[in-house]
């Protein structure tokens, strides 16, 4: 194998910068497989330089560009302050320049920017590149649900897996021990078409493995044999750190869905805690949340989702437990009930108008359930939506438990 | 049906009194099925009367017998103070008198007293009675593991199910909403022997459904047809309250095992939190704990355990999440790491020498794993034991994650 993989990160928030740190640590450690430098696309902006002698000696005391700061003091001063980034993680404000020549693209940006960003890439990436999406959430439009890994696949024409887990970014950045799950089921290098015919230039993505509500029709370019195989072993070398334990599974959809749906349940857990109901009640909400995640996967991703992703993987139960105990969705929902106001109100007063992932996911999933005529199969998801809309309050939770116990084992 | 079920509770700690409260509320509500009075066996002792006018008007200001206090002011002043008990929950200090004529026995006492208590019953119960064990823990002796439901079955010769869930007793007593799981798979009233022969007087317990390490050879008396059927519907009527949502499953062993093994994992979660590692790490420990619970069930209860009990029921994941966030095992382990002392030391200094459920279960399970030659299949359980014994510290957790990820999917 004569070529090394060029790895890039699209996005540089706290989670994007943390993943960039991990990737750059590993490309240096496995320089036989990867080019050492990892480019990170940064949406550039002016940042203040903190009142710190070392930083001001290098950057001055006037506002500087975020990319300049990252490449000079190797810190993301705005989104991940205090964490030393590897010197081989290179901030780049030019999206197309970042992706040029990259064979592995890691996507890690807020879901509301992903569609536009993919358009702006304008096919400047290698046609045979492979992607990993760390983006939480699902895209709902016209009664269909699309995972961001699928959207990337369709818009860029590259195979894309997903990464998700119990990974509160600042804790990972501080190198506190945790786990994550990568879903990756890309075609192997020695891929043959299902009819056994010699490999032609394009590989059909197996439609059975896509979302039932919107199968995609992507054809993939094979990765040239001159590159190291992109398989679970290579992905482990790229993402695992002593403090970041990676498990690779084939269930891309389950990994992506877990990261999206858990935020609905985190809101429910916050409502319960705000009500003062304690750990037993929260545990009931988490348990029912897992059941509805599994059910969601079974109905709309019957061929691709492995329910063990929800019940046994970091991207499932572990991420859910973490999100239902900490994180913005949980806390905001908790405050809303404590103060007797809506979550919308909390977004305005406490988050400066920033929207929570959980509220947009809940509304998107509700719209989808309604169009698909499946609301009654998801009493908890619908309940969270109804609370957000002011149609009910957390006091009606007993009815949800009741409805859930009447839904037959799936 | 001419006879009503007589229901009794054996044990009167905070959880026993709480379950007694629930049962007495329901026997009154369903007086067509149950005798209204519920007898509760209380290990009698002198208790001080709190400085409260209403209580002292009725009880005086000298110490009184606990049974007298319960039957007079309808509060368990020692173990569940401040909670009003139903007047039809009757404390009885005489064990044999309590069980006499009872057709449903609910066991809810600390596991270290169960064996002796069963001996003291001296077969004064009805031979065809049915039992429900709310006792957490497993009994390990000579390389075999016995669930308390099995021990009750063997010692009393009655069929016994199990009840467990995310049920921190004071929260249930305060009527905060929660769920529980009952495992019950008793023979139906119209039971026929497997060879199709007319029912003889004794029903063989299906050995396949018992522990692999120690199958039991109990024969059961059929419940007379004059009683209402003891089935999942009847158990729901007996245990469900608007604040206590009951799910009945057939997997008695899984329900009992969940309640026992979760305490090992609660200790691990406490160690992690004491170390200051945060939610991501705790979620990893919980996730691995579920995997080891499932594996334990698969190896030693292959016919009886349904792994969904661990991943989907209140007795599994929900109870585990609760125990890993609150409760004495979690808190004591957390304090031990924070103070740099052993858990044994915490038991001495903070618990007045009282032993935690988690430490005894961890040691019992370790002894069992060792005798069965299966230690390497349970890296987390063994790790908790090693920490308790001072052989390692929580700092070695990364090795546990590593070992776990190398154990092939079960």
UniProtKB/TrEMBL annotation, chains A, B:
NAD(+) binds at residues 11-16, 43, 113, 169, 328, 355, 357. It is an enzyme of class 1 (oxidoreductase). Pfam families: NAD_Gly3P_dh_C, NAD_Gly3P_dh_N. Residues 6-184 form the Glycerol-3-phosphate dehydrogenase NAD-dependent N-terminal domain. Residues 251-397 form the Glycerol-3-phosphate dehydrogenase NAD-dependent C-terminal domain. GO terms for cellular component: cytosol; nucleus. Its EC number is 1.1.1.8. GO terms for biological process: carbohydrate metabolic process; glycerol-3-phosphate catabolic process. This is Glycerol-3-phosphate dehydrogenase [NAD(+)]. Substrate binds at residues 136, 328-329. Keywords: NAD, Oxidoreductase. It comes from the Eukaryota. Belongs to the NAD-dependent glycerol-3-phosphate dehydrogenase family. GO terms for molecular function: glycerol-3-phosphate dehydrogenase (NAD+) activity; NAD binding.
């Amino acid at each position: 194998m004569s070529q090394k993989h060029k790895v890039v990160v699209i996005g540089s928030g706290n989670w994007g910068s943390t993943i960039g740190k991990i990737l750059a640590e590993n490309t240096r450690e496995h320089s036989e497989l990867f080019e050492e430098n990892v480019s990170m696309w940064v949406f550039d902006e002016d940042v203040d330089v903190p009142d710190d002698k070392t930083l001001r000696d290098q950057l001055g005391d006037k506002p500087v560009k975020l990319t300049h700061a990252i490449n000079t003091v190797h810190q993301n001063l705005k989104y991940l302050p205090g964490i030393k980034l590897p010197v081989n993680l290179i901030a780049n404000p030019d999206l197309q320049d970042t992706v040029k020549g990259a064979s592995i693209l890691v996507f890690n940006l807020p879901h509301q920017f992903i569609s536009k960003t993919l358009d702006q890439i304008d096919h400047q990436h290698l046609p045979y590149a492979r992607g990993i999406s760390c983006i939480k959430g699902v895209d709902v439009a016209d009664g269909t649900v699309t995972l961001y890994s699928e959207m990337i696949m369709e818009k860029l024409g590259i195979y894309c897996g997903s990464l998700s887990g119990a990974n509160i970014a600042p804790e990972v950045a501080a190198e506190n021990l945790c786990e994550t799950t990568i879903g990756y089921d890309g075609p192997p290098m020695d891929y043959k078409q299902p009819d056994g015919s010699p490999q032609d230039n394009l590989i059909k993505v197996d439609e059975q493995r896509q979302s039932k509500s919107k199968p995609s029709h992507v054809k993939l370019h094979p990765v040239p044999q001159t590159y190291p195989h992109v398989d679970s072993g290579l992905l482990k070398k790229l993402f695992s750190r002593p403090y970041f334990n990676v498990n690779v599974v084939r269930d891309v959809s389950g990994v992506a869905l877990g990261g999206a749906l858990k935020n609905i349940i985190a809101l429910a857990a916050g409502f319960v805690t705000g009500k003062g109901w304690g750990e037993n009640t929260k545990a009931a909400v988490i348990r029912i949340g897992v059941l509805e995640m599994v059910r969601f996967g079974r109905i709309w991703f019957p061929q691709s989702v492995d329910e063990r992703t929800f019940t046994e993987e970091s991207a499932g139960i572990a991420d859910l437990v973490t999100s239902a105990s900490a994180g913005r969705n949980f806390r905001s929902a908790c405050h809303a009930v404590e103060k007797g106001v809506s979550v919308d109100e909390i977004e305005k007063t406490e988050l400066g108008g920033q929207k929570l992932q959980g509220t947009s996911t809940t509304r998107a999933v509700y719209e989808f359930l309604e169009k698909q005529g499946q609301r009654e199969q998801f009493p908890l998801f619908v309940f969270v939506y109804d609370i957000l809309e002011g149609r009910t309050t957390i006091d009606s939770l007993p009815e949800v438990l009741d409805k859930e116990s009447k839904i037959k084992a799936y």
